[in-house]
Amino acid sequence: MKKFLKILFYSLTAVYPIVVFTMLVVLKMPVRILSLCVVAVAGAFFLSSSGRIKTDSNSEKKVLDWRPLTSSVLFLLAGILCFVFNEKIFLKLYSVVISCTMLFVFASSLVFKPNIIFRFACLADKSIKGSAFEKQVYDYCKKVTVVWCVFFILNGTAAAFTALYDFGSSELNDKIWSVYNGGISYVLMGLLFTVEFIIRKIVDKKMIKPFSLTKFNSDSRKDDYILCFEEKWSSKIYKTWKDFLIDSAKIRKFISENPCDDWILHCEDYWYFLCTFAALLQMNKRILLTQNVSENFIKEIKTEQNAFLTDQNLENSISIQNIIENSLEPSKEFYRNVPKIDSDSTRILMYTSGSTGKPKAVSQRMTEFENDNSFIISKWAKEFTSRKLVTTVSQHHIYGFLFGISLPFTLGVPFRRNRITFPEEFEKLSDSEYMIITTPAFLKRTVEIENSLPLKNPWIFSSGGACSKEVAEKTEKVFGFCPLEVYGSTETSGIAYRMQSKDGEKFTPFANAKLWLGDDGCLRIISPYIKDPSGFATADLAEFFDDGRFILKGRSDSIIKIEEKRISMTEVENRLLETSLVKDVKVVALSTDVRQYLAAAVVLNEDGKKKFAHTEKFLINRYFHDFLMKYFENVVIPKKWRFVDSLPVDVQGKKHKDEIIAMFNSKE
C-alpha cells in the first residue's frame, strides 16, 4: 500500500497543474471539494512517509526521510488553506513554493559544501570521490548548480506571474497557469537537462584523464599522442603513445626470458627509464632504483640472483638501448595486450644517500606514489597540463620519479627526454610554456649566472631542501616565477608546500596529511603516502602556528653537545652566510680521543675572494672566528676550516657529509 501511495503521489505531483486545470475548468469541480481531495492524498502520503525509516550511511542511525515528508506537508498546507479561504490561488502557488524550495536547497549547497550536483554525481559514480579528477568534476558541478539556481529563480518568477496576474477571465487565467506550469515549465526543464548533458559530454572529452602507471591500458591514449620530446618542444623530435607501447613491450619480452626476480635499474634517459620501469612493473619484478652506480656500491647490491639494466656503459650490466633499438618489433597483439598491475603488490627499493652519503634502501609501492600524485593533481593539474615538462633532478630519487616520470605519464604531459644539467639550457626554452622540476641547489646555480630568462609563463616546483629567501627572490626575478617548494622525503613523500612570495617561511601541510610535534620537537607525520599506519618520525625540528602552518628550524641531527653546550650546526652555517662573503658552507662535527669539535668547509663568493685574495689562511680563519664570536661561545666555534671551490653534492644538490669530513683528514 505504501508503494502504491508513493507512486500515486509523485505521479499527481508531476501532472499537478494539468489535474487542477481538469478539475476546476473541465469538470467544474468546486474549489473546496478539490482541496479536500488534495488534503486526502497528501495526508495519506504524509502518514505513509512519517512511518518510513532510512539508515544514515554516515552514522548508521535510523532517521526519517525528510524529502517525501516535505512534499506532503506542502501539499497539505496548500489544500487546507484552499479549503479555509475557498480560494484556488493557494493551489496555484504550490508551483512557486516548489521552485523556491528547490532554489533554497541548491543555493544552500553552494554555501554548505559540497554542492548538490556534485553529491548526485558521486552517488552515480563512486570513483569520483578521492580520485585525481575530483576537483575538475567538483568545479563543473558547481557551475551546473549555479545554472539550476538561475533556472529556479526564473521559473518561480514565471509561475508566480501566471498564478497572480489577471489575463481577463478566470478560465483564461487557469488555462495560462496550467499551460505554463504543466507544460512549458517541464519542456524548459527538459531542455536544460538535454543541453547540460551535451555540454557534460563535451567537457568530459576535454577533462584531464589521468592514467597512472598501474591503471593504463593500450587504449588510454591515442597512438599519436606525444609523451616525450628531445631538447625543446619546437624541435619536433617526439616519442608517442604507440612508441611507448612498443618499446615497453620489447623490454617486457626480454625480462620474461630472464629468471631473475630482482632488477637493478639506473637509466639517465627518461624515455628508456619510463619504458623499462613500466615493463618491470608489468612483469611483477622487484625494482632496485639507484642513482649511485659507483663500482663499489654496485658490487654491494649486485648478486647472481639479480640483473642490472642501464643505459650506461657499466660492467656486468644489460644495455637498455640494445634491447629497445635492436630488438624486432613485437606483434600488435603482444604490445596491445598490456598486463594488469596491482599497485599494492608492487615492490620498489629506492636507494637514498640521506645526510651521511651512505646509501640505504627504502621500500616503496606504487600505491603510495599514486596517492601522492592524486593530491598534486587535485591542486595543480591545470598548471601541469597547460605546459611541457623539463626537470633538473634524477628520476632515481622519489622527488624526480614522482614529478618527472609518474606525474607527467599519469596526466599525459609531454616531458623532456634528458635532464637539464646546465643552467644555460634554460635560455633555449622560449618556444613554449614549461613546467620546471628542480632543486634549490640548481636554482641557486642558475640565478648566480643568469639575470633574466626568456621563459613564457613558467611554473617551478622545487624540493630536496629549503630555498633561502635570497634564492626565492632571485628566482622570481630571473625566471618570472617564485618556486613552489614541496617539503618531504623518500620515507614520507610530499607532505607540505609553500611559495615564499605568498607564504614567507611557513609551510602549509597537505590536506590529507596529519602533522604534529613529538616530544623531541621533531615533526611526526601520518599520511596516505606512508605505509605504516602509526606514521613516520622525522629528524626535522619545527614550530607550528595557530593556523596549522609551520616553519622548519633545522634538523635534530644537526644539534650536538660540545662540553655540555648545545649548538646547532645549521645556525653556525646561517651565521657564516650572513657575512655576505660566503657562497656555500657545511659545518660538520669531528672528534678525537679527547674531545669533539666543529669544522667548517667554506665556499667564498666573489666578494669573499676579492677580500681575501692575498690573505694568509690563518687570518681568514681568524676573521670568521671573530665574526662568530658575536653570536657563540668560543668552545663551539669551528676549530678547523677548509676553503674550497665547491662542496661535494649529489645530483639532487644534497651535500655528501662523508666526503666533506674527509677534507679535514688530509693536510693542507
Task: Report a brief summary of the structure.
With 668 residues, the protein is an alpha/beta fold. Helix content is 46%, strand content 19%.
Q: For this entry, what is the oligomeric state of its chains?
A: single chain
Mean pLDDT: 85
The tally of beta strands, per DSSP, is 26
For the largest beta sheet, what order do the strands appear in spatially?
A: 8-7-5-6-9-10
Class per helix and strand makeup: alpha/beta
Poorly predicted residue ranges? 56-64
Largest sheet: 6 strands, mixed
What portion of residues is helical? 40-55%
Shape: elongated
In whole angstroms, the N-to-C terminal distance is: 99 Å
Rg result: 34 Å
Q: What is the helix tally?
A: 23
β content, as a range? 15-25%
Task: Summarize the topology.
Blueprint: H1 2-14, H2 16-26, H3 31-50, E1 53-55, E2 62-64, H4 66-85, H5 89-92, H6 94-111, H7 116-124, H8 134-164, H9 170-206, E3 226-229, E4 238-240, H10 241-256, E5 262-266, H11 270-282, E6 286-289, H12 295-301, E7 306-310, E8 318-319, H13 320-326, H14 332-336, E9 347-352, E10 360-364, H15 366-385, E11 388-391, H16 398-411, E12 415-416, E13 433-438, H17 440-449, E14 456-462, H18 469-479, E15 484-489, E16 493-499, H19 500-503, E17 508-509, E18 514-517, E19 522-526, E20 536-544, E21 550-555, E22 559-562, E23 565-568, H20 569-577, E24 582-591, E25 596-604, H21 606-611, H22 617-628, E26 640-643, H23 657-663
Helix pairs in contact: 1-3, 2-9, 3-4, 6-8, 7-8, 8-9, 10-11, 15-16, 17-18
